[in-house]
User: Fold this.
Amino acid sequence: MIDIINAFEKKYDERVIIVGNIRSRSRKLDETVRIHKVKAYNNATKLKRLITWSIAFIQMLFLIIIRYRDADLFLVTNPPFTAFIPLFCKNPFSILVYDIYPNAIAASGLLKMESFPVRLWTKVNKNVFKRAKKIFTISDGMKKEIKAYADESKIEVIPLWIDDEKVMPINKRNNVFIKEQKLQEKFVVLYSGNLGFTHDVEVVIDIAERFIDYNEIYFLIIGKGEKRDMLESRIKNKKLKNCRLLPWQSAEMLPYTISSADIAVVTLSSFASTLSVPSKTFNYLSVGAPLLCVAEKSSELATLVNRYKVGHCFRRDEVDDMVKYIMEVKNDPVYYRRLQRNALDASKEFVKINAIRFSDALS
Assistant:
C-alpha cells in the first residue's frame, strides 16, 4: 500500500491514507501523505475479526463523509466492509479487490449462497462495482470471479509484488535468525503466516510426524491466529522435537526468516484456494525458496507454481507425496538449484514497478 500511494504523487495535490497500521520496510511512506489511524485489524478469532472490520468501516466512513466528501477514493477490500462505503457517499472511486466477499464466506460453509446476507452482499457488489471507475485485482482467477459482479472491461489484473530491496537471499552462515534458532545444520521446512481457518497449517504437523526420525530436517511454523493453540497442543502431544512454533517475528527480521526456508510451505483451504493468492508466495520467490503448496490443483496458486516451475502443489490428503517431494528436494542438489533459480527468475515479474500501473490506469 505504501508503494501504491507513493505512486500517486504526481496525480494528486494531496494524498491521504486511512489505515489501521503502517509497517514500513525498506520503502517509507512519502512524508507529504496525511495519515488517519482507524481500528487495527485483529484476526485472533472470528468475532474479533468481525468487530475490528466493523469499527474500522464506521471510522473510515465518518472521515470520508465529514472531511473528504469531495475526494477521489481508492478503496481496498481489506477490511471487506470497505466495499460498502460508496453506498453512503457520492465520491468517485476505484477499488482494489484482494479477497472476494461474500464468495469466501459462502465457500467456507459459514453461510449458504442462497442465504439473505450473501444475496444482499452480492447485490451490493453489483451496485458498487457498476459505479466504480476501475476495478483492480491480483490474478486472472480473481478476475473470473469478479466478472459475476462487473463488466470485464472495467477489471484490470495487476499482480502483487515483493520488497525486492530488502527481501533477498541470505546465506545461512550470515542469517541471524538461523543462528538465533540454532538451525545452522538443519534443512528447514518453513510455514510463516496466518494460522487462521482458511489455512490448512496442520498439514505441517502431519508431515513433521513422518520425519520424526530425520534429525537433519526441521519444521518451523511462525505466526498467530485461531489455530495456534491447536497446533501447539499437537506438537506437544506428539512429542515432535523436529517442529517448533514461534510467534510473529519483527519486521526487521523478515528477510532472515523468509531466507531460512529450504522449502517454503503455502497453504489454503479448498474453499479459499480459488479466491486468493497469499502475498507471502512472492516473498518466497524473491529468496529462491522452492514451494510446497497445499491447495486445489485448479487453484490460482497451483497455476502460478506450474507456470514458473517453482515447486509442487498438493491436495490436503497427499501427505505421502509431500514427504517424497521434501526428500527429493533435500537429496537432489541439481533439482534444488533448478527450483531455486526458477523462483528467483519468476520474482523479477513481481517488483515495485507494478505499483505505477495503478496510477497509469487511472490517468
Observations:
- The two ends are 19 Å apart (CA to CA).
- DSSP finds 14 helices and twelve strands in the chain.
- The first helix runs from residue 2 to 7.
